[in-house]
């Protein structure tokens, strides 16, 4: 049990930061995908 506490403190924070950044990037990627999908409509409308 005592071996797990340092492991969690060393590995837990980088995992939490990684998950947070992946969540933020996912939201931005969704908007990029939506923009790319609407591009043909915008180009044909000219």
- Write down the overall geometry: rod-shaped
Helix content: over 70%
Global structural class? mainly alpha
Overall pLDDT score:
88
Search tags:
single chain; 46 residues; mainly alpha; 0% strand; rod-shaped
What does this 3D model show about the protein?
InterPro entries: YvrJ. This is YvrJ family protein. The chain crosses the membrane at residues 6-25. The chain has 46 residues and is mostly helical. The chain is 89% helix and 0% strand. The protein is rod-shaped, with a radius of gyration of 20 Å. The model has no long low-confidence stretch (mean pLDDT 88).
List the helices and strands and how they pair.
Elements: H1 4-44
Question: What is the compact description of this entry?
Answer:
The chain is an all-alpha fold. 89% of the residues lie in helices and 0% in strands.
């Amino acid at each position: 049990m005592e071996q797990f506490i340092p492991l969690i403190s060393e590995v837990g924070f980088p995992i939490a930061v990684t998950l947070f950044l992946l969540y933020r990037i996912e939201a931005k990627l969704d908007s990029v995908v939506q923009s790319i999908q609407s591009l043909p409509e915008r180009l044909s409308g000219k």
